[in-house]
Amino acid sequence: MDKIALTAGALYVIVLLRAGGTFAVGWLAGAGARRSRFAGRISSAKFGRAERAIQRWGAPVVAVSFLTVGFQTAANFLAGSMRMPLPRYLPALFVGGAAWALVYATAGLGALEVLGRLFAERTALGVSAVAVLLLVVCGVVVYRRRRAVPSSADTVAEES
Hints:
Number of helices: 7
Distance between the termini: 67 Å
């Protein structure tokens, strides 16, 4: 239990620094955009309504974003660039960051422990599992890249 508490504490500090830093970078980027040539576009009524909605209702989105993969950075940056007030942002950061740290500390340590035992007791099975995992990841990457690149037949059809 001490190992989980120590890991969760370290991860909590990391997520507070990382997400808070992302929020600060977003805040600075938003301030810079408001002073740039995009200021006219940003000052529209539609943008103002979106900004007020995020300022008011964005905190739950920020908190839940920590339980997703790949969305939390965008949510924190957007909260900063849309000037979410700190009294609304900080509780979401603290709650969401705590949930993230606990999930990764418990599930992460459990997965590492299982892998450690697997390699210690059945090395061949552990190596095989890692090899299969790597092959699956490589296969997914190749599949996605092939789907993203248009074939030569598609290119010829578009040109005619």
